[in-house]
């Protein structure tokens, strides 16, 4: 009998890549597109219903989710006095990574020049069991620029009975104003996620968490209104303010409770403008 060749090599799996570059500038009483480049699975859309003076940017990941080895890179530049709110079409899902695969890489950088205002309001990032994610948000602000940013992490979908037992997560938020560090926050989870999340100093048993940052000349004056907004909500939350920055942290039993608290705080900080329409779908 003829010998049969057996292939022992591990097949190379297809991975998603996406790059997005957006430059916005002040145009009359509003803000408009100066440059747009999109490649791979990352796309941007610009609804026309944004509030006066603001451009609304909706980011889409057409790959349908994130798995190990994916690479997503987004970069946004706001010219002098430009105003933009950047949101995502839906919650991002980070699925299980194959053993031995590289982590998914998600990078977002926002550059806000003199007199400009940027809002970074993606919807929830949902982590699935055994996912592997390396994510970074870098924000560079001019001295008089304003920034509002929210990041929400959900560990499994409670309504589906999902639990995240093991995962690898590297998550960082880095903000500089006038070239100097204002905030550098890093989260690292590896291995037994449930044991880590039960620790009082980590999450106290919560399954969803959020970090909100507001940088503006009047940020510190908003702290009492922000604390009143999440008072009585089904979350554990705290707010502090210093050096022209307001920082809010929230822990919740599930994504629904976290979103309700986040919407309450955003309503205070963004009044009288409504939330991006994609948040209401």
What value does the average pLDDT take?
Answer: 92
- Rg to the nearest angstrom? 20 Å
Based on secondary structure, the structural category is mainly beta
- Major sheet, described briefly? 10 strands, mixed
**Count of DSSP H/I helices:** 3
Count the E strands.
Answer: 17
Helix fraction bin: 10-25%
Beta-strand fraction estimate: over 45%
Low-confidence stretches: none
- 3D shape: globular
Order of helices and strands: EEEEEEEEEEEEEEHEHEEH
Distance between the termini: 63 Å
How would you briefly describe this protein structure?
This protein is mostly beta strands and 281 residues long.
Explained architecture:
By secondary structure, the chain is mainly beta. The protein has a domain at 81-160 and 170-182 and 199-276. Helix content is 11%, strand content 48%. The protein is built from 3 helices and 17 strands. The chain has helices at 193-198, 223-230, 255-270; strands at 17-27, 30-40, 42-45, 55-61, 71-78, 83-88, 92-94, 104-112, 117-121, 125-127, 132-141, 146-155, 166-177, 180-192, 208-215, 236-242, 245-252. Strands 3, 4, 6, 7, 9, 10, 12, 15, 16 and 17 form a 10-stranded mixed β-sheet that branches. The longest helix is centred in the last third of the chain and has 16 residues, at 255-270. The protein is globular. The N and C termini lie far apart (63 Å). The mean pLDDT is 92.
């Amino acid at each position: 009998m003829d010998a049969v060749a057996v292939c022992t090599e591990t097949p190379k799996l297809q991975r998603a890549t996406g790059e997005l570059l957006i430059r916005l500038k002040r145009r009359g009483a509003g803000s408009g597109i100066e440059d747009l480049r999109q490649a791979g699975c990352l796309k941007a859309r610009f609804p026309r219903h944004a509030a006066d003076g603001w451009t609304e940017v909706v980011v889409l990941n057409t790959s349908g989710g994130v798995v190990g080895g994916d690479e997503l890179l987004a970069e946004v530049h706001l010219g002098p006095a430009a105003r933009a709110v950047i949101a995502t079409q839906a919650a991002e899902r980070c699925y299980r990574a194959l053993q031995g695969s590289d982590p998914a890489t998600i990078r977002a950088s926002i550059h806000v020049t003199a007199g400009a205002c940027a809002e970074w309001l993606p919807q929830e990032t949902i982590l699935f069991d055994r996912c592997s994610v390396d994510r970074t948000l870098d924000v560079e602000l001019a001295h008089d620029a304003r920034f509002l940013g929210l990041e929400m992490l959900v560990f499994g979908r409670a309504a589906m009975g999902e639990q995240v037992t093991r995962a690898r997560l590297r998550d960082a938020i880095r903000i500089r104003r006038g070239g100097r560090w204002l905030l550098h926050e890093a989260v690292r989870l590896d291995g037994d996620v449930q044991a880590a999340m039960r620790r009082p100093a980590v999450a106290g048993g919560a399954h969803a968490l959020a970090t909100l940052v507001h940088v503006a000349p009047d940020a510190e004056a908003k702290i009492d209104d922000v604390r009143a907004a999440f008072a009585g909500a089904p979350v554990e939350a705290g707010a502090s303010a210093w050096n022209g920055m307001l920082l809010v942290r929230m822990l919740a039993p599930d994504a629904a409770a976290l979103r309700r608290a986040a919407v309450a705080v955003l309503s205070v900080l963004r009044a009288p403008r409504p939330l991006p329409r994609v948040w209401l779908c």
